[in-house]
Description:
By secondary structure, this protein is of the alpha+beta class. Helices cover 29% and strands 28% of the residues. The protein has one domain: CATH 3.30.1330.40. It is built from three helices and six strands. Strands 1-2-3-6-4-5 form a six-stranded mixed β-sheet, covered by helices on one side. The longest helix has 18 residues, at 53-70. This is Enamine deaminase RidA.
Amino acid sequence: MRQAAPTRDAIVPPGRQALYERHRYSAAIRSGDLLFVSGQVGSREDGSPEPDFEAQVALAFTRLSAVLAAAGCTFDDVVDVTTFHTDPAAQFDAVMRVRDGVIGAAPYPNWTAVGVTWLAGFDFEIKAIARIPAAA
């Protein structure tokens, strides 16, 4: 007998609802005790890319942190990360500087980095899967 699928709940951080409605996707989906976060980019408040690459990466991590927080998570709850880079070899050091300041101590989450040719004007995108902590 097939079991009913867990409910799929959309998670949107405060102040970003219009962006997600305009582009017709959710910032994250909570399914059971897992949180699937859509790719986050280093967009300024008007939605345009932050021009400085390292600042763009930091802003993408800030956007990811806000989505995690809206679901009651932190980076400690992240189990899987995928990042997309327009020039991985040239960008690696800057990404690692930002990452090291955000991701906690070992054990680290799984991480897959993918080189791409287009990110809608951005040079970096990060998506994640987190386990939602049990309510205390």
